[in-house]
Design a protein that fits this description.
43% helix, binds pyridoxal-5'-phosphate, 8 strands, 234 residues, alpha/beta, 8 helices, single chain
């Protein structure tokens, strides 16, 4: 496990350097990009190693796995739920006080409102947008975001902080860059019309294969899994 811990720490340093280089290319500050370490491929020990190496933002795509790790990990973590959330899993998920990147319907947001109010806190969410139009993906259609904003603004215990997307599965890095640019343009277009209660400041986009492009296109949160666990075997 000592080897594994050293390798994870090295990987973290490398990914952070790549983020800083991409930020510099775009004239942005590296501090304005938050790295979320996606731990869905690994167990509790490797997740703990990533936290201990200095990464407090950890993401899981399955709610049950987030619950399990949130119980087992020692130390202060900001959890991120990056995968689909069903309404019957909202209550246990909110207990970990995560940033939910994957809010994709008013019905889900109403369930989040109800549970957050019962818990006495305000849930922070990003609206997931399917910019690529890929039918296998979750997420709102770009044209559905604007009409949703007044409804979410009315939810007292839900705070929208921005938008999230996943790049197309096909088309490679060029297509990924176009998808990221589309999310940023959508955000810029909506910003003026945005209700006071809603912020679209955060853009969650970019994974291991394309986080550098996402940073160049304005990501404030990148979700990186495989690159952080490279070389540790299975
Ligand atoms: C798995 C996953 C990631 C991380 O993917 P890697 O390519 O391993 O970096 C990012 N975002 C979402 C939504 C994911 O499901």
């Amino acid at each position: 496990m000592a080897d594994v811990r050293a390798r994870i720490a090295e990987n973290l340093e490398r990914v952070r350097a790549q983020i800083a280089e991409a930020a510099a290319r775009a004239g942005r500050r590296a501090e304005d990009v938050r790295l979320v370490g996606v731990t869905k491929y690994v167990g509790v020990e490797e997740t703990q190693a990533l936290l201990d190496a200095g990464l407090p933002d950890l993401g899981e795509s399955r709610p049950q796995e987030l619950w399990r790790k949130a119980e087992a990990i020692q130390g202060k973590v900001q959890w991120h739920l990056i995968g689909h959330l069903q309404r019957n899993k909202v209550q246990r998920t909110l207990a970990a006080i995560p940033l939910i990147h994957s809010a994709d319907s008013l019905r889900l947001l109403e369930a989040v409102q109800q549970e957050a109010e019962a818990l006495g806190h305000v849930a922070r969410v990003l609206l997931e947008v399917n910019v690529s139009g890929d039918s296998t993906k979750h997420g709102l259609k770009p044209s559905d975001v604007e009409p949703l904003l007044p409804h979410v603004a009315a939810l007292s215990h839900v705070r929208v902080r921005g938008l999230m997307t996943m790049a197309s599965l096909t088309g490679g890095r060029d297509q990924a860059r176009r998808d990221f640019a589309r999310l940023r343009e959508l955000r810029d277009r909506l910003s003026d019309a945005c209700p006071r209660e809603v912020s679209l400041a955060e853009l969650s986009m970019g994974m291991s294969g394309d986080f550098d492009l996402a940073v160049e296109e304005g990501a404030t949160l990148v979700r990186v899994g495989s690159s952080l666990f490279e070389g540790i075997g299975e």
